[in-house]
Structures are given as structure tokens and as C-alpha cells.
Design brief:
The complex is a heterodimer of chains A (about 280) and B (about 375). Chain A is an all-alpha fold. Helix content of chain A is about 70%, strand content about 0%. Chain B has helices at about 40-50, 90-100, 105-120, 135-150, 165-185, 195-200, 220-225, 230-235, and strands spanning about 5-15, 15-25, 30-35, 55-60, 65, 75-80, 155-160, 185-190, 205-210, 210-215, 240-250, 255-260, 265, 280-285, 290-305, 305-315, 320-325, 335-340, 345-350, 355. Classes of the chains: A mainly alpha (about 280), B alpha+beta (about 375). Chains A and B meet through helix 8 and helix 9 of A and strand 6 and helix 2 of B. Bound molecules: adenosine-5'-diphosphate and magnesium ion.
């Protein structure tokens, strides 16, 4: 069915709405970029100027000297988020499959409990988590930032992937079962290949979640400079006298760049995955 | 020996009893069709035979072994699903090879078996394609190909043609019958379409509300329907059921008076029928001819060429359908009279059970 049966007025309304929404989402990034290009002397200039002649990429060069471990921080961010994603997916995938296909005691109750976990802000659990990690001797290691990350992201991941797996026709699995395939074989040869777009969607959302929540875990559970992820490392641009805003913004943007690049290539799957099952093929 | 026997198989989903004591014995190399209205439990019964669902009680015996607790693959069956259930990410070759991959057969053997199946089903040039690139009929054949590579003792089909358009369905009916002959295997075929049942089956199981109404050859069901349900389910257009009152019994059979129609002496075993009992007289549309007998006003006339399907209404308000000769001189709005040969009539008692016909055509054994 074609969906472009909008009148001109409706179209204008839709684009205005989208424009407004995008403005809210994108303006902070534009401002970050503008800040990263401006020399410090111009940052607090009044009146506000969108563009000035002294704008340059100087901050992108200086930031590496100001914070020598910057590269390391960016790497740590990606490493921690990737580890969280990989380990979460290893747990989420079979769990989501079990919730989608098997009957077991307390199924509905545990699913509900997963949702309610999301209602606790991570901050509420910081002290218990601290004590737990302390007694496991994991404080000040990568694990201190990876394990809590996994714990907080698994429930949503299971919900997301479960919804996706439920849309794979049950008859495909029954056909495999008729032909003698075990559940694990069927999962590997039939279900997972068909779930790839869903796995990418869930993996991406876990990765984003892992990236976003690093800061809290890093500043609470880790004191080792070399292990800090980028959001915590950015603190070092805050000096005693002044804050190097332009370098900080440049570093933040640089850190996000590799992640953005990956998402750009996955975009096709993301859209396909988010709308999967919405239409019959 | 019957390769497949069902012994008092029942199935309940919670409080709902879906199958009520099914007993069947299916012969070797037989093509048996389960037919019945939607929701009567056909798929459930097939899934129990396959091992996808477990019977609430009863046994499934294949080749003398009780397989009720065995996994599908150990039962010697294979199944073709209504939706084909092809793996969209695998090529036609890998779809057909799937059961063999599960068995971890050597590549050479897989290749030979897939090639043979593809040859039988005329899929050889489609092997590298994905299922999405095939037509409905070709997908259906791939699904069948996947089911034949394992050489099962019993093939199970669940409404395999219901996703195809009418013309293709006719072709596939012929192909499936041919396949059955070539493979000389036992096949159980589920459908709600009585035409498929009549054309393909050696024997038909008519299911209704979870029990077997009748199990017999197509012509047995046509000439000797055991119940009112079977009588109206088999045959196109449906059999007319005209209410009647028993006048008495004599040597010739049962004397009845049709409501709003003539008196007839029908050659059936009267059994327990007594004068004054209410019965239903079953008359197939194709057995009615223009002539003295039942008067009706023609409401709708469908001329199909060879036959003219005439839908009328009797003075009692009873609808009556007659399949008259294609050129019959009738028109909508006419009042006509159709006659029937009493030997062609069926009589059903109040319970829906048939009174045995005495002069029905002799069936070849
Ligand atoms: N898993 C199930 N849970 C509950 N009821 C079911 C289930 N499967 C089938 N039924 C019920 O059993 C009856 C028979 O279903 P089915 O065997 O699919 O019918 P058919 O194939 O003859 O159309 C239907 O009333 C259906 O609602
Ligand atoms: Mg069905």
C-alpha cells in the first residue's frame, strides 16, 4: 500500500513536526561541534556568534597533549561497551529464546521482574554493588565496569529479542524437529540466522546502553586512570583554573566517531529490524 | 500389517476435548485423507501422529511398534506443513538436504539423495535458488522434497494445497497422486476440501467435532454415508435433506411422506422406525430429474454448461437443489416438479444415523 496520500498541508505539518523534533535532538550536537572549533577566547563572547573567523580544528590537535591518555580512554570506552555487548548477547540470546518458545515455572513473573529492574535507577544500587564488587575483589578492574553494565542491560535485551524471536514462524522449528534436529541445532541453523536483524538491533541497543552508563560505574567502581572510559576521562579537561571546553567537546565527538561509523553501516539492518513483522511478506 | 494404527487416541487442551477416542488402522501404501470442517481436529490428530503434540491418552503404532513416546524422527514419518515451512535463508538444495545434514551424512550421499528428490520433483534447475525466488507450486515441491529424502514409512501432509490458487491446486492434486504411486509409500493427507478427498484418497476419514464419522472409500462415503453429517459433507452440491414422516413399513422398505411433497416408498432397512416417526430423506441434487414428484419454485439457476444447478423452494418452505441437465427447459421464477428414483434416496433417523439402503449400487471391493 502506498502511504503518501497526504495533502500538502498535512505534509507541511509532518515536516514541521519532524524538524522541531530533530532540532531538539541535534542542536546540542551542533553546539558541541561549534564549541570544539572555537578558540577559548571566543567561547564566552557576547553577543553569541555562530561563526567567527578564528574557528579551527586546533582543539582536535591540542586535546591529545592536554590529556595524554585520551586515546586510551576512547579505546577503554569501546572495549568496555563491546565486552558488555558481547557478554550480554551470549546471555540474552538463549534466554530470549527460552522466553519466546518454552514453558517453565515463573515465566510470566520473572519477565515482569525484569521490567521492574529498569525502574530502579542505577544510582540506587550503587552502594550494594560497590560492596558486592569489593568482596569479589573486582573493584578497579575492567570487570567492575563490565559486570554491572551487563546486569542492567540484560532484562531489556531479553524483552526486545523475545519479541523478535516470537515472530519467527513456529512451523520452521517444528519442521526441523520433525527432521530430527535438536533444539540447539535448530537454534543455530534456523532461528539465529533468521534472527540476525533482531540480534543487530538488540546488540546495538545494548551497546548504546553500555556506552551511556559507563560514566556512573567508572567514577564509582574504578580509580585506575588507565582503565577509565572516555566519559570519565573527559573530567581531566576540567582544570583548577579553567575548563578547556573546546578540547573537551572535540574529545567527546572524536570518541563517539568510531561508534557512529559502525552504526552508519548497520543502519539498513536497524530499520529492517525495528519494523520486522509489521508487514506480511 | 497396518503400518499405522491409532488406538483410542484422545486429546484435550485444558478443559476442551478436541479429539474423542480415535481408532484407525491404515493399510500399507495407502493414501488416506482426513477430511472435515475447519476446527474439527484434523491438524491436531496429524500432529499427534507426527509427534509434535502428545496425545492425552491412546497409542500410535507404526509398523507394529508403539511410537507414542518417540520423537518424530524415530517414528519413521515426515511431514509437509500448510505454510511449507521452508527455511528462507537456505537454498533449495540446503532446504532439501536439511534432514540429511541433521543425520550428518557424508556430502556425496547428501548430493545423491538431493539430486534424486530434485529429479522426481523437477526442481533440478532450482537447487541454487532461495525459496523466496520460487512460485507457490515450486515451494510446495521443495517442502515435499525435504520430506522424501529421509525415505519415511509414512508421509503426513497438512492442507498442503490450501495456499495455492485453484488451477495450480488441480495440477498439484494430480502430481501428488503421481508421487504417491512413484514412492509407493503410506500417505496421510489432511484437507477441509472434499474434492481433494474424493479425488486423491484410497480411503477417507471424515472427522467431525473430534470423532470419526466414517472411514471408507470415496464411493462408499458417496453411496453409503453412515451419518447425516457425512452425507451432506461429501458430494457437490450438497445433498438435500427433506423432513418427512414415516407412514409405515412394508416389504419394499419404508413408506414416507415428504413435508410439502409426495409419498415415497424407499428401499431401506426400516430398523426401529415406526409409523409417525420423523425422519429426513436425503436426495442428492444429481439424482433429481425433471418429472413427476417434488414441486418447487426456482429461485436461482446456475447453468454450468453440462448441468444446470437449480435452487428452488418447496411449498413447505424447504430449500431444494437439483442438478438438472444443462439444457433443461427451466427459468428462474418457474414452478417445476422434479422426480427422484426411490432407490437413490437416503433416510436418516432422528439421531442422524442412516437407515441401510437395500438397493444401493454394489461397490467394487
Ligand atoms: N494449542 C492449542 N491450544 C488450545 N486449543 C487448541 C490448540 N490447538 C488446537 N486447538 C483447538 O482444537 C480444535 C481443533 O483444531 P485443529 O486440529 O487445528 O483443527 P483443524 O485442523 O481441523 O481445522 C480447535 O477448536 C482449536 O481451537
Ligand atoms: Mg488445520
Amino acid at each position: 500500500m502506498r502511504m503518501d496520500h497526504y495533502t500538502l498541508l498535512q505534509k507541511i505539518g509532518i515536516y514541521l513536526g519532524i524538524g522541531l523534533f530533530l532540532m531538539f535532538v541535534l542542536l546540542p550536537f551542533l553546539e558541541m561541534f561549534r564549541t570544539s572549533l572555537s578558540p577559548m577566547s571566543h567561547l564566552f563572547h557576547a553577543p553569541y556568534e555562530i561563526w567567527n573567523s578564528e574557528m579551527s580544528f586546533q582543539a582536535y590537535r591540542d586535546m591529545w597533549d592536554k590529556v595524554p591518555l585520551l586515546g586510551r580512554y576512547i579505546w577503554n570506552s569501546i572495549y568496555i561497551a563491546s565486552m558488555v555487548t558481547a557478554l550480554s548477547m551470549i546471555i540474552i540470546t538463549p534466554a530470549a529464546y527460552a522466553y519466546a518458545r518454552l514453558e517453565f515455572p515463573l515465566k510470566a513473573l520473572s519477565l515482569g521482574a525484569f521490567l521492574s529492574i529498569n525502574m530502579f535507577a542505577g544510582a540506587v544500587l550503587l552502594i550494594p554493588l560497590y560492596r558486592l564488587l569489593n568482596s569479589l575483589h573486582l573493584l578497579n578492574t575492567y570487570w567492575a565496569m563490565i559486570i554491572p553494565g551487563i546486569a542492567f542491560l540484560i532484562p531489556t535485551g531479553i524483552w526486545l529479542l523475545k519479541g523478535y524471536l516470537e515472530k519467527i514462524p513456529r512451523e520452521l522449528e517444528e519442521a526441523a524437529y520433525i527432521d530430527g534436529a535438536s533444539r540447539v541445532y535448530t537454534l543455530r541453523r534456523v532461528v539465529l540466522p533468521l534472527a540476525v536483524p533482531g540480534l543487530i538491533v538488540v546488540g546495538t541497543s545494548v551497546f548504546i546502553g553500555a556506552y551511556a552508563q559507563q560514566y556512573l560505574f567508572a567514577i564509582t567502581f574504578n580509580q585506575v586512570k588507565e582503565l577509565q572510559p572516555l566519559p570519565a576521562g573527559l573530567n581531566q579537561f576540567i582544570g583548577y583554573q579553567s575548563v578547556e571546553w573546546n578540547q573537551m567537546m572535540a574529545a567527546a565527538l572524536t570518541g563517539v566517531l568510531p561508534v557512529m561509523a559502525v552504526f552508519f553501516f548497520l543502519q539498513k539492518y536497524l530499520v529492517a529490524g525495528l519494523t520486522a513483522g509489521a508487514v506480511k511478506e | 500389517m497396518a503400518p499405522l494404527q491409532l488406538q483410542t487416541v484422545t486429546k484435550s487442551f485444558g478443559a476442551a476435548q478436541v479429539l474423542i477416542g480415535i481408532d484407525l488402522a491404515i493399510h500399507d501404501k495407502e493414501f488416506v485423507v482426513f477430511v472435515g470442517p475447519s476446527g474439527c481436529g484434523k491438524s491436531t490428530l496429524l500432529r499427534i501422529i507426527a509427534g509434535l503434540d502428545e496425545a492425552t491418552s491412546g497409542q500410535i503404532i507404526i509398523d507394529g511398534t508403539d511410537v507414542s513416546r518417540l520423537a518424530p524422527v524415530d517414528r519413521g514419518i515426515s511431514m509437509v506443513f500448510q505454510s511449507y515451512a521452508l527455511y528462507p535463508h537456505l537454498s533449495v538444495y540446503e532446504n532439501i538436504a536439511f534432514p540429511l545434514r541433521v543425520q550428518r551424512l557424508p556430502e556425496a550421499e547428501v548430493k545423491a539423495k538431493v539430486a534424486r528428490a530434485a529429479d522426481i520433483l523437477q526442481l533440478t534447475d532450482k537447487l541454487p535458488l532461495k525459496p523466496g525466488q520460487l512460485s507457490g507450486g515450486q515451494r510446495q515441491r521443495v517442502a515435499i522434497g525435504r520430506s522424501i529424502v529421509r525415505n519415511p514409512k509414512v508421509f503426513l501432509f497438512d492442507e498442503p494445497l490450501s495456499n495455492l490458487d485453484a488451477a495450480l491446486r488441480g495440477d498439484m492434486r494430480v502430481e501428488l497422486s503421481g508421487l504417491h504411486r512413484d514412492l509407493s509409500a503410506t500417505m496421510i493427507y489432511v484437507t477441509h476440501d472434499q474434492v481433494e478427498a474424493m479425488t486423491m484418497a484410497h480411503r477417507i476419514v471424515v472427522l467431525n467435532a473430534g470423532h470419526v464419522e466414517q472411514f471408507g472409500t470415496p464411493m462408499e462415503l458417496y453411496h453409503h454415508p453412515a451419518t447425516r453429517f457425512v452425507a451432506t459433507f461429501i458430494g457437490q452440491p450438497n445433498m438435500n435433506l427433506v423432513p418427512a414422516t414415516v407412514l409405515g413399513t412394508d416389504a419394499g422398505g419404508l413408506a414416507v411422506e415428504l413435508d410439502g411433497g409426495p409419498r415415497l416408498v424407499l428401499p431401506v432397512e426400516p430398523g426401529a422406525a415406526r409409523s409417525g416417526d420423523r425422519v429426513e430423506v436425503g436426495i442428492r441434487p444429481e439424482h433429481a430429474t425433471l418429472g413427476d414428484g417434488i414441486a418447487m419454485k426456482v429461485r436461482v439457476l446456475e447453468r454450468l454448461g453440462g448441468v444446470a444447478i437449480t435452487y428452488g423452494i418447496m411449498s413447505s418452505g424447504q430449500r431444494f437443489c437439483a442438478a438438472l441437465h444443462g439444457d433443461a427447459a427451466v427459468a428462474e421464477g418457474d414452478t417445476i416438479s422434479v422426480g427422484v428414483n426411490p432407490a437413490d434416496c437416503h433416510v436418516f433417523g432422528a439421531s442422524g444415523a442412516v437407515l441401510r439402503r437395500l438397493k444401493a449400487p454394489v461397490l467394487a471391493a
